[in-house]
Design goal:
The structure is a homodimer. By secondary structure, chain A is of the alpha+beta class. The first copy, chain A, is built from 12 helices and 16 strands. Chain A has helices at 27-34, 52-67, 120-137, 162-168, 173-176, 187-193, 222-225, 264-282, 318-339, 358-371, 386-389, 416-435; strands at residues 71-74, 80-84, 102-107, 144-149, 211-217, 230-236, 238-247, 251-252, 287-289, 293-296, 302-303, 306-315, 342-351, 354-355, 375-380, 395-400. The longest helix of chain A has 22 residues, at 318-339. Chains A and B meet through β8, α8, β9, β10 and β11 of A and β8, α8, β9, β10 and β11 of B.
């Protein structure tokens, strides 16, 4: 985080259009409505790419978009757009020759037993923002769109960011069509079953945006602990994920003296302690997590022959990720030698850090100051579609607080005041890009 | 271990009866034969209490006993005796008024996919020893018995040492009859199905022994690494087993700074490092093992809310077990406080250390010296039926080397030379107690 100490400043009201009746927008009611699609009996929401709940939610959103004066349209991948065309345009296709549209939105899919804000907030706020702007200011000078991205979480297929990856052309259907979900259903069966895929008369997935703006819950506790209302995302962290395997020798827990052991689990424990020490030495925003561990044979009275654990490291700078991984690897090798263990490290994910567009960050900051909404520049420790869009178009993220930082959980919650603050900033930003010169 | 440096000394042959033709005894052949009962297709042996392989093995052994001149008899529990009655006695019952018999033997059950030596060696060697003594020296002055104990491993029901516990009266059938195996079969169904239990006209299980001598493979590498042929067991270690639960808070691996975490798995890792440090500081024969660990939710990108791990500590002195556990508990509490975790410790096994009978140990040492067999006084780090018998009668254990210390594994192996050395010591000891005054 940076600029913890920037306090909100009063705006200069003379050149600033006031926003009428913003308090009447029913964000919370529409989030509650959307959460009925895929509602779990035990609370929470499960909407997985192309499943029934997902389909019903996207089609219900398309109807909402039409009801609110937007032109709804699906693309090949099942991404749903609601378009508010610029002056003189009347149809989705008519503004092809105009400057690329400004797009806001987020993802409609959820994790298993997720909350009702993750993703959904950015879509609902986008639809209501376009409705509000249209109602009060008429058609924009530049086309505005809200997108309900088909997939971000990677909850169904072992692949994430399908929505933004297919829009930016980073990934094609050919590359993912053979992926299987946990029931053995292929990606291509799933997309066809939901009524999408090529040759359906839909818009192609690949599109060019003038800018992408994603309003999202923080999913952490940084804003709450610093009592700020808006997070202006500076960077989306880079991530590396590893599977670490430590191989020793199974032995009888009673008959094998300590010094003769090749105890894979004892060695793994020492490595996990080293990971935390290196993370603390590196300092914020570096984080390192071991969330999964297993020992084999995994019996209380047998010295473990093998231990495997996960490692997830994140930072906003690539060179710090590189250095910390090298430090950890060195510690692992030293411990493996000390314990007489064999070490295997497999990297299975590597995402480079993505700085968000600086100009849009400045505009968000200016809006916060004028609207007297407290804010914080902060990195996003979680991955988002915005990191996929940023290389293709100017992209920014606006965070609102998550109560107690809880997310991916039915207890996910953001107060109506915080939801409205985020909405206000989004409306202002879309007004600026859509209606000002 | 003690007395590493005692070298074998030549015996004084003048008052020492030589053992004729000992090299003709076919220990290995009989072990191979016995291992056909419950032989696994992939190698190894699985004989679980009262199952078919177990029943066939016990009845085949009863026939072998009869063929070799012993009187076979089962008791209520399915323990099988082969009796060589003292002079003047002709039947199993005839020596009831005589001094209590000297008993040797071990257990017939195995672990799942066990080896062919564990337990079996003590039974086979006992039968062949009694046959040999009978053949060369006639009836003993004091009744000798070999026992094939029905159960020691706890592999089928969640209860171990049923054979020795039922003989010493420590546990009755009433106490275990409701236990269930993994298929849901009750202990009482199993014992009745195998043809045992009360009211079958069998001997009662509770019996009084004059002494119990158990010949067994070491199941460790101490003898092999010290190049000794015989282990004279000084003590069977005491054991404590615990389930340690560490409770923190699940958090997002990306959005939760290191210092705000309550990472149960990181705390558990630090505790496991502390366990090893305390074990190494305490020194041999103290051993501490963490063989099992699990984290919840157990996902690579979620800070663990909960970690559970096993702890197994062993030593020959109760006060050292007490002190080490207190040291570990203190370390756990310090770490839990540092990581902001809640700690729960559950002891689920506590076995006090059992010193073996000193007089019999001396007699074994004397035999080794006279027979010029190298030996070592050493504790047993594994549990054995002998620890159940010791409080009831003078008890001793004789170990032979296990190649590479491998046990509870189809690769369990002891050389014929080592098997014969153990047999020679057993024969000498039984001769001394059965035939000398």
């Amino acid at each position: 985080m940076t600029e913890f100490d920037v306090q909100p400043q009063p705006g200069s009201p003379e050149d600033y259009v006031p926003l009428p009746e913003l308090e009447l927008v029913e964000l919370q009611a529409m989030l509650d409505w959307l959460s009925t699609y895929g509602a779990d009996p035990q609370g929470g929401v499960t909407r997985l790419l192309y499943d029934n709940a997902w389909s019903e939610a996207q089609h219900a959103l398309a109807k909402q978009m039409a009801d609110k004066g937007l032109v709804p349209a699906f693309d090949h991948s099942g991404n749903l757009y609601g378009t508010l065309s610029s002056e003189g345009s009347t149809s989705f296709d008519a503004d092809r020759e105009a400057p690329y549209p400004i797009v806001t939105g987020s993802h409609i899919d959820s994790v298993v037993h997720g909350g009702k804000y993750d993703g959904a907030y950015g879509i609902v706020a986008g639809i209501l923002a376009l409705e509000y702007l249209h109602k009060h200011f008429g058609r924009p000078k530049r086309t505005l769109k809200v997108v309900s991205l088909c997939e971000e979480e990677g909850s169904r297929f072992p692949f994430a960011y399908w929505g933004s990856r297919s829009i930016t052309g980073v990934t094609t259907l050919e590359e993912v069509q053979h992926l299987l979900d946990q029931q053995g259903v292929s990606f291509s069966q799933a997309i066809l079953g939901a009524g999408f895929g090529p040759d359906r008369g839909l818009e192609p997935a690949v599109q060019t945006y003038g800018a992408f703006i994603e309003l999202h819950i923080e999913q952490g506790q940084v804003l709450e602990r610093h009592s700020r209302s808006i997070g202006i995302v500076s960077d989306i962290v880079g991530q590396r994920r590893y599977n670490i395997t430590v191989i020793g020798e199974a032995n009888h827990a009673g008959t094998t003296p300590m010094l003769w052991r090749k105890d894979a689990l004892a060695g793994a424990a020492d490595m996990i302690v080293a990971i935390r020490r290196i993370a603390l030495q590196t300092g914020e925003p570096f984080v390192a997590t071991v969330g999964r561990i297993a020992a084999e044979p995994g019996v209380g009275n047998v010295v473990a022959a093998k231990a495997t654990f996960s490692l997830d490291i994140r930072h906003v700078r690539q060179e710090i990720l590189d250095r910390c991984w090298q430090d950890m690897l060195q510690a692992f090798r030293r411990i493996a030698a000390e314990y007489q263990l064999r070490l295997e490290c497999e990297e299975h994910l590597s995402v480079t850090p993505t700085p968000m567009n600086e100009k849009i960050q400045q505009d968000i900051q200016e809006i916060c100051e004028r609207e007297q909404i407290s804010y914080l520049h902060m990195p996003s420790g979680a991955g988002h579609d915005s990191q996929i869009f940023q290389p293709a178009c100017p992209t920014a993220m606006i965070f609102v607080p998550s109560q107690q930082g809880i997310s991916h959980n039915p207890r996910e919650f953001t107060t109506e005041t915080d939801l409205m603050n985020g909405f206000r900033v989004l409306v202002r930003l879309l007004y600026k890009y859509g209606y000002e010169d």
